[in-house]
From TrEMBL:
It catalyses: L-threonyl-[protein] + ATP = O-phospho-L-threonyl-[protein] + ADP + H(+); L-seryl-[protein] + ATP = O-phospho-L-seryl-[protein] + ADP + H(+). GO terms for biological process: cytoskeleton organization; intracellular signal transduction. PANTHER family: AGC (CAMP-DEPENDENT, CGMP-DEPENDENT AND PROTEIN KINASE C) KINASE FAMILY PROTEIN, SERINE/THREONINE-PROTEIN KINASE. GO terms for molecular function: ATP binding; protein serine/threonine kinase activity. It comes from Gossypium schwendimanii. InterPro entries: Kinase-like_dom_sf, Prot_kinase_dom, Ser/Thr_kinase_AS, Ser_Thr_kinase_AGC. Keywords: ATP-binding, Kinase, Nucleotide-binding, Phosphoprotein, Serine/threonine-protein kinase, Transferase. This is non-specific serine/threonine protein kinase. Residues 13-246 form the Protein kinase domain. It is an enzyme of class 2 (transferase). The keyword ATP-binding applies. The lineage of its organism: Eukaryota, Viridiplantae, Streptophyta, Embryophyta, Tracheophyta. Its EC number is 2.7.11.1.
Amino acid sequence: MRLQRHKMGADDFEPLTMIGKGALQVRICREKATGHVYAMKKLKKSEMLRRGQVEHVKAERNLLAEVDSNCIVKLYCSFQDEEYLYLIMEYLPGGDMMTLLMRKDTLTEDEARFYVGETVLAIEYIHKHNYIHRDIKPDNLLLDRNGHMKLSDFGLCKPLDCSNLQEKDFSMANNLSGALLSDGRPAAPQRTQQEQLQHWQRNRRMLAYSTVGTPDYIAPEVLLKKGYGMECDWCSLSVMIKHCLV
């Protein structure tokens, strides 16, 4: 349940163990009123502006506020003061998959099938909401107290505008001229210059272009700088599967 009883602030939480330091601080904290334990993500506004990360943070916050899945870490509330933005998130005490791999070296096929299956569900879920994660890797897969995997760290996620996706862009049935090629196949309809521009703009909104991600897991199409979509997450997952088993 999201924390919506009253306007929240940093003083409503007792800080406990620090998990991460720097411009992005993550600390385990306890809500004073209830005793519930959360993970507090604390982002310094000046650093966000300096690094040009404002849109990334907005996308992360918007996605987490929108989704509700057992395979994705939950956001309970967000607030800010003059210096910091705070995200109060679900605390997962089981560590991350990278730590698990370092401890076990490799997973059995059954273990890999279980964790990869839960990761697939998480990726499918955010794709259905028209977001791509762009940083799928073991470090961003956290374990809850029951051993289930949850996808986290949406700092590089990107919303894709699929609202203008129209069937006519992919179907030959809209050949208004009715022209045929020499082999009897229908010819593609001729677009006016304005239609070509609109088609290009729609396609561009459905692609991402920034070269982001973690080098060991980044998809080749990201490096080509010609635009990429949701397929980049599946490529990163395939690399992770190899690391789990080999």
